[in-house]
From TrEMBL:
Pfam families: p450. It comes from Amycolatopsis eburnea. The keyword Heme applies. This is Cytochrome P450. Keywords: Heme, Iron, Metal-binding, Monooxygenase, Oxidoreductase. One of its GO terms (biological process) is cholesterol catabolic process. Pathway: Antibiotic biosynthesis; vancomycin biosynthesis. It comes from the Bacteria. One of its GO terms (molecular function) is steroid hydroxylase activity. Involved in the coupling of aromatic side chains of the heptapeptide of vancomycin. Belongs to the cytochrome P450 family. PROSITE patterns: CYTOCHROME_P450.
Length: 406
């Protein structure tokens, strides 16, 4: 019997660590875009780096499916039914339409009205003038917003923070190490995710029995063209909203404060002209997309950027690289709030375009407005370099700041 030999990847093709930020990653992505807009690695996985090709794949869900069962066993099907981001049409179309029906304009407006208030409440509770911005503010604002939407009691939020942190600890495994790949998969699929699912199942069962005013009760009752969600679909959709809407938005706020620390001129401009904040948020979203890459699975043999991709291939679409593609954004590695960055792909594109994009932008805008109003200066403390999770989400573990109250 011959021993199986794992293929090894040329180290020059492995992405640099993001533990201390993107200073190595951005030049590496520039080299990848120039040399291999679409790269096939020795495992047969494809990595797409250029804006046009990323957008093309996102616009073609028939060929580039979001459903992992095309390449992986069905074992996790119960875990994913209702999770919009891993579904294809027609099931995706049904769940998205029902979710949109439950996310009524009145519910969105009520939620928006709460965001500024929640931001003020969190700042009222900040301990002293030196603190960790992540644990005191940026993690909590989106979590409180999405949990109010879902009707999760405040007392349970620390449990959600713990589960989220456990998920973030799952590092992007070294593809040259089978044990690391396996451990990462097990931890991601059968650890905190299952516990969250049990929690949400309990909440949904309670709301099914005793409906009250709230998004989940609306979701359980919403009917579009005679179709409703099954209980496990509603549970998974709720988890998806919670996961998708928490660390992503937290990451925007934390990265924004880091950018202000690097660009005091931008901070000064935003203070004198707060109308610039939405453009600055767009640029921050472009510069450091909280979800740096998306996954797709080919349903058929296809071609992208001149590269043949066989059916049943795993394809990674780098939103981070697309957002730094010099063909679309001049001088892409500079942070420039005047560039008009709204074309970024940070919220995806096509049928899976982020369900919460408007909410996320409102959170960022109100969060930053509240900070600039409350503090006349926000200084990112030098000392230890800021450390980031090495997960599928790009977000700092902690950002120590010193503030002066206005
Ligand atoms: C800055 C914050 C956010 C970022 C960067 C972000 C990013 C994304 C991206 C890239 C996708 C596309 C996934 C794909 O095509 O595979 C997506 C989808 C999604 N997002 Fe967001 N998101 C954010 C905030 C939110 C919020 C606040 C919510 C809800 C409360 C939310 C809910 C969702 C849902 C449900 C989907 C799946 C949509 C579908 O597949 O049809 N997101 N998000």
């Amino acid at each position: 019997m011959t021993d199986f030999v794992m293929p090894q990847i040329d180290p020059a093709l492995l992405p640099p660590s993001v533990r201390f930020g993107l200073s190595d990653t951005l030049p590496w992505l520039g080299r990848m875009r120039a040399a291999n807009p679409v790269l096939r690695d020795p495992f047969g996985m494809h990595h797409v780096f250029t804006y046009a090709e990323v957008q093309q794949a996102l616009a073609d869900p028939g060929t580039f499916s979001s459903d992992p069962s095309h390449v992986m066993p069905q074992a996790a099907a119960e875990l994913s039914a209702g999770m919009l981001a891993v579904m294809d049409p027609p099931a995706h179309t049904k769940v998205r339409r029902i979710a949109s029906a439950a996310f009524t304009p009145k519910r969105v407006k009520d939620l928006n009205d709460r965001i500024a208030q929640i931001a003020e409440e969190l700042l009222d509770a900040v301990p002293g003038d030196e603190f960790d911005f992540v644990t005191a503010f940026s993690q909590y604002l989106p979590l409180v917003v999405v949990s109010e939407l879902l009707g999760i009691p405040k007392t349970d939020l620390p449990q959600f923070i713990a589960w989220t942190e456990a998920l973030l600890q799952v590092t992007v495994p070294n593809p040259n190490d089978a044990a690391e790949m396996d451990a990462a998969m097990q931890a991601a699929m059968f650890g905190p995710l299952v516990q969250m699912q049990q929690y949400m199942a309990g909440l949904c069962a309670e709301l099914r029995a005793n409906p009250r005013d709230g998004f989940i009760s609306d979701l359980l009752q919403a009917e579009v063209d005679g179709e409703r969600l099954a209980d496990h679909e509603a549970v998974n959709l709720a988890i998806q909203l919670l996961q998708a809407g928490h660390i992503t938005s937290a990451s925007v706020l934390a990265n924004f404060v880091l950018r202000l620390g690097e660009h005091p001129d931008v901070e000064a401009r935003l203070r004198t002209d707060p109308a610039l904040i939405p453009a600055a948020v767009d640029e921050a979203l472009r510069f450091t997309p909280p979800v740096p890459r998306l996954q797709r699975f080919t349903t058929t043999d296809t071609k992208l950027g001149g590269v043949a991709i066989p059916a049943k291939s795993m394809v990674f679409l780098s939103l981070l690289s697309a957002n730094h593609d010099e063909k679309v954004f001049a001088n892409p590695d500079a942070f420039d709030i005047d560039r008009g960055a709204a074309r970024n792909l940070t919220f995806g594109h096509g049928i899976h375009y982020c369900f919460g994009a408007a909410l996320a932008k409102t959170e960022a805008k109100f969060g930053i407005e509240a900070l600039l109003r409350r503090y006349s200066s926000i200084e990112v403390l030098a000392g230890e370099p800021v450390e980031f999770y090495e997960s599928e989400l790009f977000t700092p573990k902690s950002v120590r700041v010193r503030v002066r109250r206005a």
